[in-house]
Design brief:
The chain is an alpha/beta fold. Helices cover about 40% and strands about 20% of the residues. The chain is built from six helices and seven strands. The strands form two sheets. It has a five-stranded parallel β-sheet, sandwiched between helices. Strands 2-3 form a two-stranded antiparallel sheet. Helix 4 crosses helix 5 and helix 5 runs parallel beside helix 6. It is globular and about 50 Å long.
């Protein structure tokens, strides 16, 4: 169920991109992170680590999009900014967008930042399972202003080759989790289509 989502896009090279846009993947506001409060959930951490690596390799700025989704949470982008700084990315290479609470809002607010900064091409970085829905919104909102969006899926949950593994015959909680996430994405994609 998740494989068609994860295999829809391949990682595009960041050569033509002017900025890497990384989407938040959840935060835990009360979690202790050394001397700070607030940590990223696994999807957000995987996305951020990939963005940091690409930003350093290609000297690109990173636009982190993610606000405070839950009342008892924290802004995903502010937690991610702190982590990028701790990983050695300079402040001038980091752009923070803290208002978005949904994928649609990620795209809308990113479009605003691109317009303000004159960006004409972005590399969109999010989990492979989340990429098709993200591209629906980003191609719509950024495409309206002539910005090209290239996909860079990461944080894969399934083997992209799809080769049989005997372990699949044993029920696993992780498989149920991936199925639930895939269903969430399919419902979200249907909703995005209907919002046109």
């Amino acid at each position: 169920m998740g494989q068609p989502l994860e295999n829809r896009y391949i990682q595009q090279q960041p050569d033509a991109a002017q900025v890497i846009v990384v989407l938040g993947g959840g935060s835990v506001g009360s979690a202790s992170d050394g001397t700070e409060r607030g940590g990223l959930m696994s999807a957000g951490a995987a996305r951020l680590l990939t963005a940091a690596r690409l930003a350093k390799q290609h000297s690109l700025p990173v636009l982190i999009s993610g606000g405070q989704v839950f009342r008892d949470g924290v802004s995903e982008a502010l937690v991610a900014e702190r982590i990028l700084l701790q990983l050695g990315l300079p402040q001038e290479q980091i752009i923070v967008e803290t208002q978005a609470r949904t994928t649609k809002e990620n795209a809308a607010y990113t479009a605003m930042h691109c317009r303000e900064r004159g960006y004409q091409s972005v590399l969109l970085l999010t989990s492979a399972l989340h990429m098709p829905r993200s591209m629906q919104f980003f191609e719509r909102y950024l495409g309206e202003q002539g910005v090209k969006v290239a996909a860079y899926p990461c944080d894969y949950t399934l083997n992209p080759q799809g080769k049989f593994n005997p372990r699949w015959l044993v029920p696993q909680l992780q498989a149920f989790d991936v199925t639930c996430m895939a269903l969430h994405e399919y419902v979200g994609m249907a909703g995005a289509f209907l919002q046109r």
